[in-house]
Amino acid sequence: MLSVLRTASKRPLWQATRTISTSRFLLQKPPKDGKPQSILTDDMLAKAGMDIDEPTSKDIPKDEATDKTTKDGKSGGKSKRVRQTSTEVKRERYANWFYIFSLSALSGSALYLTRDWEENESQELKDKVENGYVPSLMYQRFKLRFNSMFTYFQEPPFPDLLPPSPPPPYQRPLTLVLNLEDLLVHSEWSQKHGWRTAKRPGVDYFLGYLSQYYEIVLFSSNYMMYSERIIEKLDPLHAFISYNLYKEHCVYKEGEHIKDLSKLNRDVNKVIIIDTDPTNYKLQPENAIPMKPWDGKADDKLINLIPFLEYLATQQPNDVKPILNSFKDKYELPEEFEIRVEKLREKFNIEQNQKINGNWALKLLGVSSANSVTQAANKFPLDLIREEGEKNYIRFMKMIEEEKQKMKIQQEQMSGQTFTLKDYVEGNIPTPEEQMQKQVEKQKEIDAIFEQQKKEQEQ
To answer: I need a surface site. Which of 63, 215, 299, 341 has the fewest CB within 10 A?
Structure first.
């Protein structure tokens, strides 16, 4: 007994639990039936709040071990009940209440989703299932409402990705949606240089020339944080590209990001998309002009599309899909369109020659078919359209160059005009009216400097 107490006294004070062994060698009663028994039973020790060490196999006689094995085996003996502390009992009770509450909440929510349609809900859902508390109708309403909860993560952030079209005098007849990656630019990564982006030959001319006919929308297949800088370099003045869209504006369906043209707030019949990935336009394939991905090598495939796109815009069709689908292979659309143009040109020339040669009045007047005035009046219509388009493009680019020079002068003039914290504290900041007047005066100075530089360049 004294040896047990001495051993217990040597244990550290930080050990909060006390352990007493109930082996047959400690605190024994006189032998009963030849078997020593402990004075303290397990129930007494448990009520005293002590942890009980199970007797090891060394402390249990072979006969007792055999009896225990027989009881725990298939003979149907009862296993020993595991004792729990008050804290464990509370935890188990709270867990049971939590499971009951969660199950009740889920059941209530499921029943709430089966209710009849309300006025503020989508009309599209109402048209699919009628009202009524029939099990089949309730299940269908539950299914539709449950699925609509996840459309928030599948649809674009706004129902209309573009603002309304401008008034008719400034409105373009058609909308041209262009992909960025592997169509206008190509990006590569190398260990030596890292990421490098190459601009396709003719991109500036392609965008500048077609901007007079189309509302150009650049729809990148990448996220905004990666594509925004590239787009800024393509069109720093925002003169050619009307709007920019990114991967965030795609529709997410079946694990794929799709560019849904019906979300553009434009008439889908007057929208054309040029892309290198069929997945991007799988919802409106009839509106697409597919192209193979550009690998970074110089080519003229982008420039070859201009004649067809120019012709299509000048015709102002009510629906572009029948015209696009009239081509057998859209990948070879520029070549097939060129063949059609040559046939029309030959037919046009034959008709013009017949008119001139068959006009006896011109012969009596001595006007030959080679007269320059007659030839100018009888030019092929597509040639006239192209000449007018080139003139407008030259004027437009000249105006852009002038705006660039003005912006450069403005940056030089405005670079020194800043307000310090002292000005804000002392109230030396001019009023909005004074600031507006200074801006008008500064703009006049910039225009005068620009005109002076322009005259010097002409001389």
So the answer is: 63
| Percent of the chain's residues with pLDDT above 70 | 72
Burial of residue 177 (CB within 10 Å: 0-12, 13-18, 19+) is: buried
pLDDT tens column, 150-195: 665 667 777 889 999 988 778 899 999 999 999 999 998 888 888 8
Predicted local distance difference test score (pLDDT) of residue 435: 73
The predicted model gives 313-319 an average pLDDT of 92
Q: Which top CATH class is 168-326? A: alpha beta
Domain boundaries, the chain: 2-62, 93-149, 168-326
Q: Which residues fall within 8 angstroms of residue 165, CB to CB, at 6 or more apart?
A: 171, 215, 266
> Rounded to two decimals, what is the model's pTM?
0.64
In terms of average pLDDT, the best of 145-154, 161-170, 419-428 is 161-170
Q: Give me the pLDDT at residue 118, please.
A: 86
Q: What is the mean pLDDT of residues 259-286?
A: 94
Would you state the pLDDT for residue 27?
46
